[in-house]
Amino acid sequence: MRLAGAPISWGVCEVPGWGHQLSPDRVLGEMAHVGLAATEFGPDGFLPDGGAARRQVLAEYGLAAVGGFVPLVLHDPHRDPTPAVRRALAVFAEAKATTLVLAAAAGRDGYEARPELDDAGWATLLSNLDRVDALARDAGVTATLHPHVGTMVERPDEIDRVLDGSGIGLCLDTGHVLVGGGDPAALARRASGRIRHVHLKDVDAAAAKRVRAGEIGYRDAVAAGMYRPLGAGDAGIAEIVATLTAAGYDGWYVLEQDLVLDAEPPPDRGPVEQVRRSLDYLRGLAR
Q1: pTM over 0.85
Q2: CATH of residue 141
Q3: Degrees to nearest 5, angle at CA 173 with 171 and 176
Q4: pLDDT digits over 104-154, tens only?
Q5: Domains of the chain: total
């Protein structure tokens, strides 16, 4: 298994007011210490702006660049995502990162609410997904669409609409699929040929149900521990990995368990403990 990290597993997030933000030195150092081979970039400002500078920083910790999460408004016919995509791809190329993880942003801060799309909005979104896919392919980068709570592609029917109406690959985020009301193991079985990237999260299904019902906001549910170390939740991680392995998936598995921190944890405590538990679980599956 090609195992990578993501800064959000250390609570580093693009959402204003999300929580205490750890330094790159601590996050990247702990990634290297637990044996991760690579990482996604994290939000703007976490790493240097330029791709070459990002690659240099990661190399100091023995980490390669996987790619990164890029939320863009794709459903508005008056907003052209092409310039932002080209800028991101230039950074990816310089950093030698291979995977663009795209989210169909709602155009609002955070992931607590979103509008509903009409048919015209869907047509624009699907067309833009194919445009981004082509731009990425020309740049030698694999583009994927990440279904994500609070974005325009969240629920199972919306994921199906993307699979049926565009050719872009899928980032299977096991946590967001479940929180959005889907079955990540079933999606892995029926869409294995479209899955180009994987974010591994385990989830407390009861907490996810409360988010869907509007009883608790997404950020508050994360802060309350909705995401669990791999193997300790209800996402069916072992079945998902077995299904993708049998289907010949050879991409990255990124540990991406959203976390909210109130303060700086003591050395060698805090997020890294959950990451270690998750890695131990995955290594046990591999054995």
Answers
A1: yes
A2: 3.20.20.150
A3: 130
A4: 999 887 788 788 899 999 999 999 999 999 999 999 999 999 999 999 999
A5: 1
